[in-house]
Amino acid sequence: MKHNKQYQSLKIDSDTTNILIEGPVSSEKLSRLTMHEALTAFRPPYEQLEALKEIADLPEGRILIATVNQEIIGYVTYLHPDPIERWSKYPKDNMLELGAIEIAPQYRGNKLGSRLIETSMIDENMENYIIISTEYYWHWDLNYSELSVWDYRKIMEKMMKAGSLYPAPTNEPEIMAHPANCLMVRIGKNVSKEDQEKFKKLRFLT
User: Fold this and answer.
1) Where exactly are the transmembrane stretches of this chain (predicted)?
2) For burial by CB atoms within 10 Å, which of 2, 109, 165, 188 has the most?
3) What is the DSSP code string of 40-83?
């Protein structure tokens, strides 16, 4: 399939700062920006910026960013599932995984995560995809948030709901490793019943 992408943007004006949410953005656009020094959840900020540029260059890759004065303070990524994951066995190319979402700590509380996901779904081309997000409690920032696993899970569900992703049952071993883990799913309205059935079988491999 052809991975069409439609640019979206949203300005958030507040008393203290002006935040721009936009995307999908190109690697060229990302090259003109810097990463907030606190965006270290996956790797050092400079290395993560390079990783975002690589994803942006993928045919299916989508990067949406939140910026303040040419500095990236948050982002969300979409790309095909990692080859080592069960979900990569899905036989079509109309599946995207929400692979990473990160907000600089000082900007949390502005619902930026929800707004990034919500903005990404405005693109009508997203209706052509099955979109998944694998939520594992060991990836959550429990130390900074000082929340319990279950309270953090509620926050993640609320954030994903902004993009119409909802928990879906599966017997995937890592999801089943802890009751707080979950598979979040959004099935676009243009996804065929046949493809939905393929995905359902993948969720319950025996």
Assistant:
1) none
2) 165
3) -SSS-HHHHHHHHHHHHTSSS-EEEEEEETTEEEEEEEEESPPT
154: amino acid identity, one letter: K
Measured CA to CA, the distance from residue 151 to residue 175 in angstroms comes to 18
User: Looking up tokens 């954030």, which residue turns up?
Assistant: 159
d(CA 14, CA 20): 11
The tens digit of pLDDT for each residue in 24-40 reads 999 999 999 999 999 99
Of the pLDDT bands very low, low, confident and very high (cuts 50, 70, 90), residue 145 is: low
Spell out the domain ranges in the chain: 8-203
DSSP 132: E
Fold of 8-203: Aminopeptidase (3.40.630)
Give the E-state strand segments of the chain in sequence order. Answer: 8-13, 18-23, 34-35, 62-68, 71-79, 95-103, 130-135, 166-168, 182-187
Tokens of 14: 């507040």
